[in-house]
Amino acid sequence: MLIRAWLLAALCWAATAALLVVALPADVDGVPGWALLGHLAVLVLAAADGARRARRAPIGWRLRAPLAAVLGIALLAVPASGALAYDAAKDEAVEEMLLDRLDKADRIVKEQGGRPFTATESDYRTALGIYRGLLDDHAGSRAADRVPGRLDAYYRSVAAPYTEKKYCEAVEPLKYLRTLPGTVGRERLGRLATWPDRRLADSLYACGMTSLGTSDGGAGLRELLDTFPGSAAADKVVPGIRAAIDDRTSELTGADPCTATGELRAIRATAASLPDGAGQPLGTKAADAVESGTYACGLDEFEDGRYTEAAKTLDGFADTYRGSGRSERARTVAIAAEVAAARPQAGGKLPAQRGPGSGQDFVVKNDGPSPVEILFTGPATGSVKLGACAGCSTYSTRTEGKAKACKASGRSYPQRTLRLPPGEYHFLYKRDAGALGSGGLVRNHSDGAKVQSGYRYTDCAYVVSGGLGDFAPRS
């Protein structure tokens, strides 16, 4: 201005304005290099032209030195202070960018509320990656300084099912949180490094007890004892299982002893599978409960008319618990149930605990080429097996069987004599189909009879073949 080079001054102002347009507002990338080089070139040219003009300008020599010093200082101070201000603005831009990243991670965490962990795990890992990046790459920034507080919220969000007492749902997210010390760093996490431990132990116990009595009910309890053997939750496992056995045992006299028995079996398996023999003290208690439950279940199935199931349950009981005082009774009811499955008239009420041994003679013979087992129930219940008849064969029709069965002279028929108290009886004849030959098919046959005092009865079992296959024996 002193030399009144207005055009040159305007060009410098324009170059500076262009630089400001490019540089402001400050961002994390700073000013592009081409802008700085261009502006520097303009300044160099302007300075050179100014020096040339200053030699010819009519300025007194007395003013030249002080004026040049003042202008030089000003020209140096303005760019330097501008550079400092710009660096500060750039640093603030970086901080704002990092805070935006922090906010993004916070939003991701907040958006997961109420969703199952299986659907949110990937998003939670994304948010954690942002937090880790701030700690690893931008330590000392305002955003990084706020991460520890955000991790508190992160942990609470992941563990929300535990807070809501949804313990089975809480197990997997809490397991995930226990992996973070190896990912983020134990020192960085501080108290959060062990924050999930007690909560996971409590969740494993609560979930394990909730699912106790199911096929996989012991998984959580086993994991609890393996992972947190000294925890308060682990100390509750054995007492909790003992109480569960007592609860199911009390249900054996209720309306559904079969369900209670199935759960007792599962509980017994859980107790036996606990590590380090922790469940051993429960073994006898669980076994006794299962024994009582199996018997109660079989009787309940019979009374409910589920005769096939009752026969299977009570036969299994008698085979498994041969030394039990209830095995004989179980076998009696099983026989009645098997007869009733083929002949429902034999059901309706539990049979009396009475076998043959007094009453009327009832002779049973076998005129068949295969062994036969005869089950009967009524005032007395029992079964008898007769071996195959040597030389006997099947009959082509029922009429022929009725006319000829057990009447061949000189033939010895396998037979037994039962003494049955008078009353209504129901019979089931069971043939060994395999003994009839490779083409032999045979159906079981049921029938009824009334035994009266003063009579002697004979029953002949035979086989009729023809049609679509062999028919069952008939008295």
Low-confidence stretches: 467-475
CATH class of the domain at 360-468: Mainly Beta
How far apart the termini lie comes to 138 Å
* Strands ordered across the widest β-sheet: 3-2-5-6
Give the rounded overall mean pLDDT: 84
Shape: elongated
What's the architecture of the domain at 360-468 in CATH terms? Sandwich
Q: What topology does this entry show?
A:
Layout: H1 6-23, H2 33-56, H3 61-111, H4 117-137, H5 142-158, H6 160-163, H7 167-178, H8 180-184, H9 186-189, H10 195-210, H11 219-227, H12 232-235, H13 237-250, H14 257-273, H15 283-303, H16 307-320, H17 327-342, E1 360-367, E2 372-377, E3 382-386, H18 398-404, E4 415-420, E5 423-431, E6 445-451, E7 457-462
Parallel strand pairs: 1-7
Antiparallel strand pairs: 1-4, 2-3, 2-5, 5-6
3D structure, described in words:
The protein is an alpha+beta fold. Among the domains are: 107 residues, no CATH class; 109 residues, Immunoglobulin-like, CATH 2.60.40. The chain contains 18 helices and seven strands. It has a four-stranded antiparallel β-sheet with strand order 3-2-5-6, covered by helices on one side. The protein has a three-stranded mixed β-sheet with strand order 4-1-7, with no helix packed on it. α3 packs antiparallel against α4, α10 packs antiparallel against α11 and α14 packs antiparallel against α15. It is elongated and about 165 Å long. The termini are far apart. The C terminus is likely disordered.
